[in-house]
Amino acid sequence: MTNALMIAFGLCLLVIQGMVQRLVVSEQLCPMLVVPLVLHLAVGEFSLSRGATLAFVLGYLTDVASSMPLGLYTFTIVALFLFARLAGLKLFLHGMLFQIALTFLGGLVVGLVMLGLHVIFERTALAVRATMVVVASQSVATALVSPLVFAVARRLPGVEAPRTTDRN
């Protein structure tokens, strides 16, 4: 049941992200809303197999919702989950500022990996400077909405909140 709620929440985030993409003037202002959810899975009280499976499904849903070749977001989202889990980022979840910083870095990683994979598989030339501005600004937008995504994900029924210590 909890897994279904996480997937439904991720699907809702993708729908909201699609609506925001239609409403905003520039793609630079559109956050990648699945990234904070995957980071929550990585630093939360989820087992490795359960979190990786949920990250895989969320990445696949992101692939389906995007115009990128199928499998790129799936790979990138699962890799982000595994690297965040491997790095032991539970230490960094001591407050909203750390969530924002973690999500900004995660957004940069996803954006840069997606950029590289897009260039490799699509064999298209991109304006690197303009694309880097888009990646950086999307990472900022993602980081700014991450506390909201973390808060909603923590309140889903059956989801245990990450254990943190208050050192604010």
How many strands in all? 0
**Amino-to-carboxy terminus distance:** 34 Å
SSE-based structural type: mainly alpha
Helices and strands, in order, run as HHHHHH
Largest sheet, strands/sense/barrel: none
What shape does the CA trace take? globular
Q: Mean of the pLDDT scores? A: 81
Strand content: under 5%
Overall number of domains: 1
Task: List low-pLDDT spans.
Answer: 164-168
Q: Please bin the fraction of helical residues.
A: over 70%
Tally of individual helices = 6
Radius of gyration: 15 Å
What does this protein structure show overall?
By secondary structure, the chain is mostly helical. It has one domain. Helix content is 71%, strand content 0%. The chain is built from 6 helices and no strands. Helix 3 runs antiparallel to helix 4. The longest helix is centred in the middle third of the chain and has 27 residues. The C terminus is likely disordered.
In short:
With 168 residues, this protein is mostly helical. The chain has helices spanning 2-23, 34-43, 48-65, 72-86, 96-122, 128-154. The longest helix has 27 residues, at 96-122.
Topology:
Elements: H1 2-23, H2 34-43, H3 48-65, H4 72-86, H5 96-122, H6 128-154
Helix pairs in contact: 1-3, 2-3, 2-4, 2-6, 3-4, 4-5, 5-6
